[in-house]
Design brief:
By secondary structure, the chain is an alpha/beta fold. The chain is built from 9 helices and 7 strands, in the order E-H-E-H-E-H-E-H-E-H-H-E-H-H-H-E. The chain has a single domain (7-186, 214-238), classed as 3-Layer(aba) Sandwich (Rossmann fold). It is 48% helix and 15% strand. Helix 1 packs parallel to helix 2 (39-51) and helix 4 runs parallel beside helix 6 (152-172). It binds NADPH dihydro-nicotinamide-adenine-dinucleotide phosphate. NADPH dihydro-nicotinamide-adenine-dinucleotide phosphate is lined by residues 11-12, 14-18, 35-38, 41, 62-64, 89-92, 112, 116, 139, 141, 184, 186-187, 189-192.
Length: 247
């Protein structure tokens, strides 16, 4: 098992990609703290982790609220005594054309996706520095690399996450803390299930591997980045998109 004796915190882990990462980590031997704004979903993920024989800690945490984030980090430290891995996964979309985008739609997405990632990263930095160990994995998106019609807020938030990842990597590297971003393409979750059929078809036609990604495809890369196999990798963006974006 690649994550034996590790303690991981995963945000937005009640469903979708976050839930899959949580289960994949538990299968590799990690204990996992589950945060989500939806407490019921978070509890369901935690139950499944415990069924795998691992410990979990569930908390209803909105990542936009720094004091809530800090309090909940302290609860994890009380229970598990350390936090080895942080996965900043919580994210939302509020899609519309730039011209029609309201200030609220812009602010909401930047606040959850970008400020949320900053809040959680800042809150775990002190314990990770003390431990001289940490693995920070930020879930970005290929949209943060290539932009997309109707997603100015989302694209800017995800590009911001990539820049934040590189800065985090540079600031914390001397204490054996790595920070990397995973940029998924088109993954089958509730977030993409709400897209109109014509957009879904168009996206699919742009994928060389000819299928949507599964949450497991993203989780596999997160397990790798959290494991000792990735000890010498930091500040990188790993694209998981079936070949949609090729540098
Ligand atoms: P989902 O919408 O399926 O899941 C996101 C989870 O995050 C939900 O449980 C949601 O709760 C929770 N959440 C939302 N806001 C907050 C908040 N403020 N604090 C804590 N939790 C919150 O999304 P996916 O699983 O598809 O996406 C996960 C990540 O992957 C996101 O960052 C997304 O941007 C990224 N991504 C997804 C892609 C895809 O194709 N699906 C592609 C590229 C990147 P609730 O449901 O109650 O709002």
């Amino acid at each position: 098992m690649r994550l034996q004796n590790r303690v991981a915190l995963i945000t937005g882990a009640g469903r979708g990609i976050g839930r899959e990462i949580a289960l994949a980590f538990a299968k590799e031997g990690a204990d996992v703290a589950i945060w989500d704004v939806n407490f019921q979903d978070a509890q369901n993920t935690a139950k499944d982790i415990e069924a795998l024989g691992r410990n979990s800690l569930v908390d209803k945490v909105d990542v936009t609220d720094f004091s809530a984030v800090e309090n909940s980090v302290n609860k994890i430290l009380d229970k598990f005594k350390k936090i080895d891995i942080l996965v900043n996964n919580a994210g939302i979309t509020r899609d519309t054309l730039l011209m029609r985008m309201s200030e609220e739609e812009w602010d909401a997405v930047i606040k959850v996706n970008l400020k949320g990632t900053f809040n959680c990263t800042k809150a775990v930095t002190r314990p990770m520095l003390k431990q001289k160990y940490g693995r920070i994995i930020n879930i970005a998106s290929i949209i943060g690399i290539m932009g997309n019609v109707g997603q100015a807020n989302y694209a800017a938030s995800k590009a911001g996450i990539i820049a934040l990842t590189k800065t985090t990597a540079k600031e914390l590297a001397s204490r054996n803390i790595t920070a990397n971003a995973v940029a998924p393409g088109y993954i089958d979750t509730e977030m993409t299930q709400k897209l109109p059929e014509d957009i879904r078809e168009k996206m699919l036609s742009m994928i060389p591997l000819g299928r949507m990604g599964k949450p497991q495809d993203v989780a596999n890369v997160c397990v790798f980045l959290a494991s000792t196999d990735a000890d010498y990798i930091t500040g990188q963006v790993i694209v998981v998109d079936g070949g949609m974006v090729m540098a």
